[in-house]
Design goal:
single chain; alpha+beta; four-stranded mixed sheet; 15 helices
Length: 627
C-alpha cells in the first residue's frame, strides 16, 4: 500500500516532501506555479488566469447589454452626441449603464492581456496554436479600436484630444492627400455623417471580433466560454457596484478654438497619447513581433495512429482537448486518424489508447524505472515542485500521456505511482489533469490500477480549499476583485502640450507651371457635359510659406498633391507659445520665376491662456483668415 505521506484521493489533496527540484525552472513552471498557488488557496474559481478568456467573454456580455441601452439614448452628431451623453449620465439608470459599459470595457482589456501573457509564458503559440495566437491579437486590436471610437462618439475634451493626437500621428505618415488635422480646426467642420460612421464602426466591429473569436476557438474542443457561476455573478455585481459608487465623470465639450484641458486619460484605450514618436513605433514593432512569434522556434511533435492496433473505441477522440483526432471509416471498423494541423503534441491520446496504438513522432522517451518496488513520480514538464528523495521520475508533456500498459506494468511489479499534474485549472493542455483524475478514480476509460495516487498542487503546504467551501469563496472573491480593480483606474492625468497655440493652415491650389487643355477633336469624342474648357494635364508650383513669430522664423515648402503634382496644396501646423501679445508675419509665395505672393500679412495678435488662434489661407475657398 502507499505511504500515508502521499495519500491523495481527490483534487488538491496530498503533498510531496523532501527531495530535489524537479526539472528546469522555466517561465512555464513559474507561471503554472502561481496558478497552482491560487487554485490551492481558493479552489478552481480563484485561478483568474485560468479563467482569463472566460472572464473576457463575461466582460463582453456586460458591454453588449449596457451598449444596447446606450445605443437607444445616443444622438448622432458632434453637439447632439455630447448633449445626449450628458442627459444620459444625469439619469440614475443611464449613468449606471455608462459606467458599466466603460469599466467592463477596461476589464475586457485586462483579462485579454492576462490571457495573452498566460499563453506566452507557457509557450502555447507555436504549431497549431498559431491560429488562436494570431486571432487573439486581431481581437485585441479590434477591442482597442472599438473603445477608441467610443471616446470619439462622446466628443468631449477627452475625445477631442484623442482625435488630435491620433490625427497628428497619421499626418506624420504622409499617407493621406491632406492633413487629417484640417478637419479639426473649425467648430462645424465635422459633419454628422462622420459620427454616423463612427457609430457604425462602434457597433459592427465587435461583430467582426466575434468572427475572429470563432476562429480563435476553432481548434479547441469543449471551450470554456464562461467562468463558474460564482465568478460570473461576482464580476457582474462588482461592475454594478462600482458603477453606482463611481460614475463616469462628465468632461467639458470639445472646442476646436481652445486647447484640450487636463483630464484623466484611459490607460487602456488612450495610452498612445503619452507615447513619443519613437516609443509608438517601438510598441508597434513589439506587437508585430509577438504576432509573428509562431514562426520562431521548434514546432511541437504530432501523434500518429497504428491502424493495425486501432479498434475504433474512440477514447482518443473523446480525450483530445483540441479535436485533433477523429474516426473515419476503415476496413470493417472505424479507424482513428490524427489531423497534424490541430495536434499540439500533448500526447493525451497516447495515454487514452488502451492498446498502445498511438505514439508521438518522434516517440516519447520513457525513462527506465527500477524493477523492484519503489516510488515512481509521474509529472509533466511544466509542473512545479520537488521530487521525493529516492524516487524515480517520469516527466512527460502531460501526465495523461503515460500509456495505460506502462501504468499496469508498474502496478504489477509493486511500484507505487504518484502523479503530480499541473492542476485542474492550471493544466497547460487544458484537460490532462482532469482525465488523470478520472482514470485514477476509475471514472474514465482506460482505468488505471487503484494504487495510483494523484496530488494536485502537492508541493504547496497550504490548507485544502475547495471552490464550494466558505473559505475558498472568500479567497476567490479577494483574488477576483484584485484582478478587477485595475480596470477601475481612470489613468494618468493628461496635460496640454502648451498654454496657447497658433494654427497655420493652407488649403489652396497653386498656379500651374504648365498645363494643357482639351483639343476640339478630343472634346468631340466626349459627352456634352464633359467638354469643359479646363486643364486636363499640368504641374502646379510648390508654395513657399514663411511665418515669423516674435522674431522666430519658420519656413516650409508645400508641395501640390496628386501623383502628377496637379492637385491642391494642403498644410497644417501648430506653433505653441505663451499667452499674451505676439508679433506675427505671414507670407505665402509660389516657387516660380516672377511669381507674386499669394498672401502677406504682418501684425500683432493676442492669445489668451488655453486659446487657439487660426491663421489660414484658402480655408472655405477664401483668402487669408485670422481669427
Amino acid at each position: 500500500m502507499a505511504d500515508k505521506r502521499y495519500k491523495a484521493s481527490g483534487p488538491g489533496k496530498g503533498h510531496l516532501t523532501g527531495g530535489t527540484s524537479g526539472g528546469r525552472l522555466g517561465a512555464a513552471t513559474l507561471w503554472v506555479g502561481v496558478e497552482n498557488l491560487l487554485e490551492r488557496a481558493g479552489g478552481v474559481a480563484a485561478n483568474v488566469a485560468g479563467w482569463s478568456g472566460a472572464l473576457a467573454v463575461t466582460c463582453f456580455v456586460l458591454i453588449l447589454l449596457s451598449g444596447v441601452y446606450l445605443f437607444f439614448s445616443y444622438q448622432v452628431g458632434a453637439e447632439a452626441g455630447y448633449r445626449s451623453v450628458q442627459a444620459l449620465s444625469a439619469e440614475p439608470l443611464g449613468g449606471l449603464m455608462r459606467a458599466v459599459h466603460r469599466y467592463a470595457s477596461r476589464g475586457f482589456m485586462v483579462f485579454a492581456a492576462l490571457h495573452l501573457v498566460r499563453y506566452l509564458a507557457t509557450g502555447r503559440f507555436r504549431g497549431p496554436w498559431w491560429l488562436a495566437w494570431v486571432t487573439g491579437f486581431v481581437m485585441l486590436f479590434i477591442a482597442w479600436f472599438v473603445g477608441l471610437t467610443g471616446y470619439l462618439l462622446v466628443w468631449d475634451v477627452a475625445g477631442f484630444a484623442a482625435a488630435r493626437v491620433l490625427a497628428e500621428g497619421i499626418d506624420r505618415l504622409g499617407i493621406l492627400g491632406q492633413p487629417l488635422r484640417l478637419s479639426l480646426v473649425e467648430a462645424g467642420a465635422l459633419r454628422d455623417n462622420i459620427f454616423l460612421i463612427l457609430l457604425y464602426l462602434h457597433i459592427t466591429m465587435p461583430l467582426l471580433g466575434a468572427f475572429f473569436g470563432w476562429l480563435h476557438l476553432a481548434r479547441v474542443a469543449r471551450p470554456r466560454l464562461l467562468p463558474p457561476p460564482f465568478v460570473a455573478v461576482l464580476t457582474s455585481a462588482f461592475y454594478v457596484a462600482v458603477g453606482i459608487l463611481r460614475p463616469v465623470p462628465n468632461l467639458e465639450p470639445a472646442d476646436p478654438t481652445r486647447l484640450p484641458g487636463s483630464f484623466p486619460a484611459d490607460p487602456f484605450y488612450l495610452a498612445y497619447m503619452f507615447l513619443p514618436e519613437l516609443a509608438g513605433w517601438a510598441v508597434l514593432g513589439v506587437g508585430v513581433g509577438l504576432t509573428v512569434l509562431p514562426l520562431v522556434g521548434r514546432q511541437p511533435p504530432t501523434a500518429r495512429v497504428d491502424p493495425a492496433r486501432c479498434t475504433g473505441c474512440g477514447f482518443c477522440v473523446a480525450d483530445c482537448p483540441y479535436g485533433a483526432v477523429r474516426l473515419q471509416p476503415g476496413k470493417g471498423r472505424p479507424v482513428a486518424v490524427v489531423d497534424p494541423a490541430r495536434c499540439v503534441g500533448c500526447a493525451i491520446c497516447v495515454g487514452a489508447c488502451p492498446l498502445d496504438g498511438i505514439e508521438l513522432n518522434p516517440p516519447l522517451k520513457l525513462p527506465a524505472v527500477p524493477s523492484k518496488p519503489g516510488l515512481v513520480v509521474l509529472t509533466c514538464k511544466a509542473a512545479p515542485g520537488k521530487i521525493p528523495s529516492g524516487a524515480a521520475v517520469i516527466r512527460l508533456p502531460c501526465v495523461a500521456a503515460l500509456p495505460v500498459s506502462r501504468v499496469r506494468e508498474l502496478s504489477r511489479q509493486g511500484t507505487e505511482l504518484l502523479v503530480v499534474p499541473c492542476g485542474l485549472s492550471a493544466c497547460v493542455y487544458r484537460e490532462g489533469s482532469t482525465w488523470v483524475l478520472g482514470r485514477a478514480g476509475r471514472r474514465r476509460f482506460p482505468y488505471w490500477p487503484r494504487r495510483v495516487l494523484v496530488a494536485l498542487g502537492g508541493t504547496l503546504k497550504l490548507p485544502l480549499a475547495r471552490s464550494n467551501a466558505g473559505w475558498g469563496r472568500v479567497v476567490a472573491a479577494v483574488v477576483l476583485v484584485g484582478s478587477l480593480l485595475p480596470g477601475v483606474w481612470d489613468g494618468p492625468q493628461w496635460e496640454p502640450t502648451a498654454e496657447a497655440a497658433i494654427q497655420i493652415v493652407v488649403r489652396t491650389e497653386a498656379p500651374f507651371l504648365w498645363s494643357r487643355s482639351l483639343t476640339e477633336e478630343e472634346k468631340s469624342r466626349l459627352l456634352p457635359h464633359m467638354r469643359a474648357d479646363v486643364p486636363v494635364a499640368g504641374e502646379r508650383a510648390d508654395l513657399q510659406l514663411a511665418v515669423t513669430v516674435d522674431g522666430a522664423r519658420y519656413e516650409w515648402v508645400i508641395r501640390p498633391g496628386g501623383i502628377r503634382r496637379n492637385g491642391p496644396s494642403n498644410f497644417f501646423t501648430e506653433v505653441y507659445l505663451n499667452p499674451g501679445h505676439h508679433h506675427l508675419s505671414f507670407r505665402l509665395t509660389p516657387v516660380a520665376a516672377g511669381a507674386s505672393p499669394l498672401a502677406t500679412w504682418e501684425g500683432t495678435i493676442e492669445v489668451e491662456r488655453g486659446m487657439v488662434r487660426l491663421v489660414a489661407y484658402g480655408l472655405d475657398g477664401g483668402g487669408l483668415t485670422i481669427r
